[in-house]
Each structure stands twice: as structure tokens, then as C-alpha cells.
Design goal:
The chain is an alpha/beta fold. Helix content is 29%, strand content 21%. The strands form 4 sheets. Strands 1-5-4-6-13-7 form a 6-stranded mixed β-sheet, sandwiched between helices. It has a 5-stranded mixed β-sheet with strand order 10-9-11-8-12, with helices on both faces. A hairpin with a 5-residue loop joins β2 and β3. α10 packs parallel to α11. The longest helix is centred in the last third of the chain and has 19 residues. The protein is globular. GO terms for molecular function: hydroxymethylbilane synthase activity.
Length: 382
């Protein structure tokens, strides 16, 4: 089955324990079309309003999906087609509608689903594919070429260097940055028996797991959307996995969580839990729309973390973690981490300073330079 067909047709929730059977409703909530997928234009799954007929038993008899493109869209949103990416696009759409009455009308906002390199290549670990922008390149190209007006990204997927002719002026309010432990037999990583296999494609997670729990094993080629990875876990491919809590919350799937890892146990990826929205640098109209959605505290924290990542020249082959947040005194507290590829060495640092853009950029860069100096030649195995 085509990956898009799979990800768009399945229900949002994958529950690891046995649950009562329920009817799943898929219906149109606006204009949605697809680029790079071999399937017809279909309606988007969502949780809000849907017209449906019910039998006397209360079960759904029919749900008629209609592609609503009766007018030219004011805003065309570009996104990947995974359930999480779509949830983020829907969140963006609803926030735009709530701020701008002219966008409430059906068809005023159109969602364009775009297949990226990272979506197409699922047989290899991300680190082996190489390159940057694996989940953003094709969306950025559509933006630059004028096929879409704004691009909704998971910020952790966005390279530190933006493509020419684009800007990223907006971050939505950040979700919980922590990682969730998912397992059917244990409550935490510490409870897993020696030799247990944890599935994760993230070198950041792998390095921190094996540094603290060297008796465990990690399956690196554990790819796919959240639903796919949960299905692999349920099928016994691995004994446990880690997922970003933010994504599970956005898809209302937190019932799958066995426990939440503290920041001391697992420092998050740079920009984890944050949504970024880009537009063309010469499009003042879209820039103004995005300015109305921007959450400045989140934008500053992400800028600090990305300055750290840029200084380290991080890639998919480099285990890097970083997190900036406002502390109880209103200052920025930043923590950064870098690990050797074999997980034997983990270097950490922290910074504290004013919650001001220039100061936070300086903190991120300074922390990165410190870890580069401490790591020395050969630390990253290059």
C-alpha cells in the first residue's frame, strides 16, 4: 500500500492495550490535496464537525467527503502527510481562523500535502541517508515556487540554514518537550531487563540510553510515523520505544505512555515540541498573518537552541540535545549535550542569562563552542 494511503486512511489512535471497538469517522473539514502521493484528492481526518447519518443503532451509516475548492484559497498551507504533520497543519489553520474572520469561510485555507525525501525512504536509518532537510526540502521548494503560501514544519526537522527567499517568522506555543517511554512490560528504561531492545531512529536518544543503560540494545532502523512505530512495538519487533510527548499530545494518544522521562534522564532534541511556520521573504501578506500567531517566548528559546546546534554543525549523524526555557526568575536557562557516536562519552554544559534574543543567541553559540573545545579531534568519529 502506498505510504500516504496508509497514513491518511488509518485512525489517529493506535492503542497498545486491548480496547473496545469503536467506529472511526473520516470527513471533510476543508480543502485538502496531495502532492507526491499516488492517490486521489481525499478529505482530511479530523476530530471536529462532521455531517453523518446514523442508523437506529447509533452506528455511522455514511460519511460523504467533499473536496471543497469552490473558491480560490487565501492561504495554501504546505505540510507532510503523516497524522502528526496533519494535526500540526490543522492546529495552524484553526489558529489562523480564530485570529482572522476572512479565513473562516470554507475554502479560504487549503492544505497541500507534500511527500518529502524522508517520507519516501523508510528502509534506512536517517543517519545513513545523510543530508539535511530530509523532511522539509520538497515543502520548501513548493513554497519558493509559489505552489503554497506557508509551510508548517516540526522545528526539529528544520536545518539551521533556511533556503534562500524564505523566512521563518513564526513559532506556535511550544508543547511539552519531554520524551515518553512506551512499553507493554516495564514502567521505565531502568526496569527493562538486560538485553532488551529499544527501538529508536534518533542517535540522540540512542546515545543517552546506552550511556546510562549499557546493558540495553538499540534498534536504529526503527522508522515510520507514530502509528507505525507503535504497531511495530505491539508486534514484538522491540521491547520499548521512546516518542516525543508533544506529538502524542497533539494526536490525543497519551494513553500509550508508560512513563515520561525527566530532562535529566533524556535531554530533548533541539526545538522538540515546537511548530515553525515559514513563508516567502517577499510575501508581506503572509508574514503579517504569521506574526499574529507567533509565540515570542517560544521563538526566542528555539533561536537559542538552534544557535547551539549551528555552532556544533549538527547533522543526523551527530547526537546533540539542547533545551532553553524561562526560569522562575524570568531568565533563560539553557542546557546542551553532545555524545560520541559509540555512546561511551557524553559532554554536557549549561548557561544562564537574560531572556533577550541577542543574549540567548550568544549563550547558545558559547555553549556550542565550549563543547567543541572539550570534545576535541575525533570525538564525533569523523
Amino acid at each position: 500500500m502506498d505510504i500516504a494511503t496508509s497514513s491518511l486512511s488509518q485512525a489517529h489512535k493506535v492503542v497498545l492495550t486491548r480496547q473496545p471497538c469503536s467506529r472511526v469517522n473520516t470527513c471533510s473539514l476543508g480543502s485538502v490535496s496531495v502532492i507526491g502521493f499516488s492517490l486521489p484528492q481525499i478529505s482530511s481526518p479530523d476530530l471536529a464537525k462532521c455531517r453523518r447519518k446514523q442508523s437506529s443503532s447509533g452506528f455511522v451509516k455514511a460519511c460523504v467527503a467533499v473536496e471543497q475548492k469552490t473558491r480560490t484559497a487565501i492561504i495554501r498551507i504546505g505540510t507532510r502527510g503523516s497524522p502528526l504533520a496533519l494535526a500540526q497543519a490543522y492546529e495552524t489553520r484553526e489558529k489562523l481562523k480564530s485570529k482572522h474572520p476572512e479565513l473562516i469561510e470554507d475554502g479560504a485555507i487549503h492544505i497541500e500535502i507534500i511527500k518529502t525525501t524522508g517520507d519516501k525512504i523508510l528502509s534506512q536509518p536517517l543517519a545513513d541517508i545523510g543530508g539535511k532537510g530530509l523532511f522539509t526540502k520538497e515543502i520548501d521548494e513548493a513554497l519558493i515556487n509559489g505552489h503554497i503560501d506557508i509551510a508548517v514544519h516540526s522545528m526539529k526537522d528544520v536545518p539551521t540554514y533556511l533556503p534562500e527567499k524564505t523566512i521563518l517568522p513564526c513559532n506556535l506555543l511550544r508543547e511539552d518537550v519531554r520524551d515518553a517511554f512506551i512499553c507493554l512490560t516495564a514502567a521505565s528504561l531502568a526496569d527493562l531487563p538486560a538485553g532488551s531492545v529499544v527501538g529508536t531512529a534518533s542517535l540522540r536518544r540512542k546515545s543517552q540510553i546506552l550511556h546510562k543503560y549499557p546493558a540495553l540494545h538499540v534498534e536504529e532502523n526503527f522508522r515510520g510515523n507514530v502509528q507505525t512505530r507503535l504497531a511495530k512495538l505491539k508486534g514484538g519487533n522491540v521491547q520499548a520505544t521512546l516518542l516525543a510527548l508533544a506529538g502524542l499530545k497533539r494526536m490525543s494518544m497519551t494513553e500509550n505512555v508508560a512513563s515520561i522521562l525527566s530532562l535529566d534522564e533524556m535531554l530533548p532534541a533541539v526545538a522538540q515540541g515546537a511548530i515553525g511556520i515559514a513563508c516567502r521573504s517577499d510575501d508581506d501578506k503572509m508574514a503579517n498573518y504569521l506574526a499574529s500567531l507567533n509565540h515570542e517566548e517560544t521563538r526566542l528559546a528555539i533561536s537559542c537552541e538552534r544557535a547551539f546546534l549551528e555552532t556544533l554543525d549538527g547533522s543526523c549523524r551527530t547526537p546533540i540535545a539542547g533545551y532553553a526555557a524561562k526560569d522562575e526568575d524570568g531568565n533563560c536557562f539553557f542546557r546542551g549535550l553532545v555524545a560520541s557516536p559509540d555512546s561511551t562519552k557524553v559532554l554536557e554544559t549549561s548557561r544562564k542569562g537574560p531572556y533577550v534574543y541577542e543574549d540567548m543567541i550568544k549563550m547558545g553559540k558559547d555553549a556550542g563552542q565550549e563543547l567543541l573545545s572539550r570534545a576535541g579531534p575525533g570525538f564525533f568519529g569523523n
